[in-house]
Amino acid sequence: WNLVITLSLVSSPIIMVFFCLAAFIYAIKSWQYVTTQLAARNNEFLYHSISSFDKWQQFKSWFYVQFNIFLPLIIYALFASIIGFNFDHYIIPIAILLYLLALIIVSVWIYVRHSNRLMAIDRQIILIRLLRNWNKSFFFLYTLFVFSKLKITYLITKAISWILIIGTLAVFSDIKDESALPNLVVLMIVTAHSLLIYNEFRFNEKYLYFSRNFPYSMSKQFLGSLLNYVILMLPELLWFISNFGIHSVSLLLQAFSILILFRSLLYWIGLNIKNYLVWIFILFNLVFLIILYRITWLLPPVFVPVAYFVFQKNYLNENLID
Fold it and tell me: Over the stretch 33-48, which tens digit does the pLDDT of each residue have?
């Protein structure tokens, strides 16, 4: 199986794209980690130490750091290249190695630029500046938080969402039941946004836990978060409306019924992301079976009441944040 997987990597452009995407996400997480460490108060001396070297010395030092961070990927890429060369696959292994080298160089450029930027600057994005003096809805706060602090997470989610849309349309293009294809796309899009759903719950528990004392009705608390999802999923919503017309109404109802159930489960599960992913996997397969049996009309009238029941029973659960 290891041989089959490795051969697939060095012989299939599609598998190579997924590997490159995973490597890019890994690189982004390494950038976040390094810049967070540099920003730590007990590491402020690094700014003075690093900036005392010339740029070439900084480049070599940061290259060594990022090379060690990328070591698991590099070792696997070298292993895959050896296997690929033995089976006469040359282009993809070389492309993967060059891609990893390019990611390391880009990472080094980011670190050098960041470690030499000593002046404090206003990092607020243009959208936040424009909306600074506007009255903001309480249920709109998470969207502002995403565009301010979770931009990379949002962009990765969008990339995964559109890759799944294109992949689903390509893989299932010859499906006989034409109504099943849009339903599959709906399932893929909502699943792709499961991390943003988790982060919204985490944001509310971390920063807005006191909001349980606000005079909002249970139904308003339950449906209020939909405002965030409408804005965050606006590109997909516009695509659905333009491609499916009036049929998009039922599809969007199905999407939001699945989405609201994903969110309500967090009030029962809490911040345990492992259990959350297990339930996402179970519900994904359940909805997939519902699509295969052509009974997707059941999703809104079943999922929404179940979601509200779970939300209502666990809304005041004081152990969630633990």
Answer: 988 888 777 777 777 7
Cβ-contact 136, 130 below 8 angstroms? no
Residue 9 clears pLDDT 60, i.e. is over it: yes
Contacts 24+ apart (CB under 8 A), 79-87: 79/6, 80/6, 80/9, 80/10, 81/10, 83/3, 83/6, 83/7, 83/10, 84/6, 84/7, 84/10, 84/11, 87/7, 87/10, 87/11
Contact, 269 vs 275, CB < 8 A? yes
For residue range 81-115, what is the model confidence (pLDDT) as tens digits?
888 888 788 888 889 899 999 999 999 999 888 88
| Tokens (6 digits) for 138 | 């309480």
Surface-to-core class of residue 265, CB atoms within 10 Å of its CB (0-12 exposed, 13-18 middle, 19+ buried): buried
Q: Which amino acid is at 291?
A: I
Tokens 């019924």 correspond to what residue? 257
Crossing angle for the helix pair 2-11 and 91-115, to the nearest 10 degrees: 80
Give 128-165 as a DSSP string. HHHHTTS---GGGHHHHHHHHH-HHHHHHHHHHHHHHH
